[in-house]
């Protein structure tokens, strides 16, 4: 543990620091092959990141395994203090981390990246205070037998990250895992690995060597080698539904616990008595338009009561038209780029399907930036899809772009049914001033995170996780740490 690391002040230099290496055992460990990481806003190569092989992945797991017993032997509160100190260090360096994040994800520095780093630091601080909450129970089994449970760490945790909010999602995994006494191997997203490395290296200054390790590579090579590794005791994954299934199967083969945070198609129900102003603002924040809609929680199915529909649509369009789409590094920019050409083609494909649907209407808002060196293909306009049948792919599937489906409703029972007609169950919101209706809707909506008259993002101390094909298990909160990063041992002591 040292406190000597100062990140480079220049984002490009910070990115170059992590050229072709992993962070293993507290050191920079070169690997044999690399992959290019592109700046989505320009299309230029931003840097080279590790393309780890199975044996390079194994080296990280071995480092984590070796560090495990000594880390687990440190009192829980002391582990928590180290994690919290890492959070404060991250906050102290938030600007450089945010600058790297904006370059690799295409997310706007002002509206997205700085906030993401600050939330990441907050998650570390939050979990850092929970060391002494790793409590067991005493059980009144028999007066002559002291019966209790204790909480133990699981061992080496594999944490697999996506590209859309890599830092927040990393901290939601590693902070509870570390405080609970586990050691961790993070598999960064190959689309956006550098901010993950930089944030981890800042945090590692406060942790013993090998407790936190970061590797990068493709899912097929590095990811699969990690999830199938015999010494990994727990897998925590955030990503797509399809890869989530593969990861779950890999855990099942070895009977290790798996947490999955997958996709969503979250409904937002606007009732006839809702505040127009609040619900329109909630649609913009909930749909995560400033993140190009690249959010699993996005309120991407918006059901508006027929009496408000026209006014809601007009106000939403007017607000979306004011958002500036452009260079993620420009302080004036609200909306940056889609992560890559493949994802941009997926988004465009869904919009084309809506356009080809008889009776449907497609509304594009805002304007693509012109006359710059930016790559115009990756700037997707905020798009509203109207009058689609409920079984349309755009209504049923996660698009993961700035595309919201707006549906009209008149009958409350019918809209609850339509809202629940989804294979997903991640989040839902309802907008009404009627308390009875709000309570009724919250009890009937089939989603793990239901809000009324607001559309908050993930909070460190509030459990978050989906039902159905949105995933398994919870993240954030004490509940998530106890349920997913510890095991419970029952001890019965005869007193006679
Ligand atoms: P992805 O599933 O393609 O990749 C996620 C991670 O899994 C990457 O690090 C990738 O390298 C790795 N991976 C790929 N194949 C693997 C394999 N066979 N074994 C092990 N690891 C493998 O997802 P993505 O495109 O990076 O992220 C977007 C997806 O993530 C969206 O579908 C979105 O809904 C989901 N997401 C969910 C949440 C949530 O909390 N529910 C949050 C953010 C993103």
UniProtKB/TrEMBL annotation:
Magnesium recorded as keyword: no
Active site location: 261
Entry's Gene Ontology molecular function annotations: oxidoreductase activity, acting on the aldehyde or oxo group of donors, NAD or NADP as acceptor
Residue ranges occupied by any Aldehyde dehydrogenase domain in the UniProt entry: 34-491
Key words, A-Z: Oxidoreductase
Signal peptide: none
Family membership noted in the UniProt record: Belongs to the aldehyde dehydrogenase family.
UniProt xrefs under InterPro entries: Ald_DH/histidinol_DH, Ald_DH_C, Ald_DH_CS_CYS, Ald_DH_CS_GLU, Ald_DH_N, Aldehyde_DH_dom
Stated name of the protein: Sulfoacetaldehyde dehydrogenase
UniProt keyword Oxidoreductase, yes or no: yes
């Amino acid at each position: 543990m040292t406190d000597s690391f100062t990140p480079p002040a220049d984002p490009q230099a910070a990115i170059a620091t992590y050229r072709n290496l992993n962070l293993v055992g507290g050191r920079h460990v070169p690997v044999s092959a690399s992959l290019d990481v592109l700046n989505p806003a320009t299309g230029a190569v931003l840097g080279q990141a590790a393309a780890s092989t199975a044996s390079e992945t194994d080296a990280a797991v071995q480092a984590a395994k070796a560090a495990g017993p000594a880390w687990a032997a440190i009192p829980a509160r002391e582990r928590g203090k180290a994690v919290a100190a890492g959070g404060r260090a991250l906050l102290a360096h938030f600007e450089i981390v945010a600058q790297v994040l904006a370059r690799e994800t295409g997310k706007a520095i002002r509206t997205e990246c700085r906030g993401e780093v600050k939330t990441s630091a907050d998650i570390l601080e939050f979990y850092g205070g929970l060391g002494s909450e790793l409590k067991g129970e005493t059980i009144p089994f028999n007066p002559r037998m002291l019966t209790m449970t204790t909480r133990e760490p699981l061992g080496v945790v594999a944490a697999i990250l996506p590209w859309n909010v890599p830092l927040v999602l990393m901290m939601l995994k590693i902070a509870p895992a570390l405080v609970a006494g586990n050691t961790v191997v993070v598999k960064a997203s190959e689309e956006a690995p550098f901010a993950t490395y930089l944030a981890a290296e800042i945090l590692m200054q406060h942790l013993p060597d090998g407790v936190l390790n970061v590797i990068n590579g493709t899912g097929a090579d590095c990811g699969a080698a990690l999830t199938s590794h015999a010494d990994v005791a727990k897998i925590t994954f955030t990503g797509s539904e399809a890869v989530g299934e593969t990861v779950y199967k890999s855990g099942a083969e070895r009977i290790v616990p798996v947490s999955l945070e997958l996709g969503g198609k979250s409904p937002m129900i606007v009732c006839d008595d809702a505040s127009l102003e609040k619900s329109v603002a909630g649609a913009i924040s909930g749909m995560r338009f400033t993140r190009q809609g690249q959010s699993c929680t996005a309120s991407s199915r918006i059901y508006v009561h027929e009496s408000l529909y026209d006014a809601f649509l007009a106000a939403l369009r007017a607000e979306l038209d004011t958002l500036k789409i452009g260079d993620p590094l420009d302080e004036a920019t609200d909306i940056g780029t889609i992560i890559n050409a493949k994802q941009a083609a997926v988004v465009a494909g869904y919009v084309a399907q809506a356009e080809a649907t008889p009776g449907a209407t497609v509304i594009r808002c805002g304007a693509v930036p012109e006359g710059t060196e930016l790559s115009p293909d990756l700037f997707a306009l905020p798009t509203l899809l109207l009058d689609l049948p409920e079984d349309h792919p755009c209504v049923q599937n996660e698009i993961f772009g700035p595309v919201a489906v707006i549906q009209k409703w008149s009958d409350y029972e019918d809209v609850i049914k339509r809202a629940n007609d989804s294979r997903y169950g991640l989040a839902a919101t309802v907008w009404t001033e009627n308390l009875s209706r709000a309570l009724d809707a919250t009890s009937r909506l089939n989603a793990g995170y239901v809000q009324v008259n607001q559309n908050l993002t993930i909070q460190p101390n509030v459990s978050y996780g989906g039902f159905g094909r949105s995933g398994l298990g919870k993240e954030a909160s004490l509940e998530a740490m106890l349920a997913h990063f510890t095991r419970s041992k029952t001890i019965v002591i005869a007193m006679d």
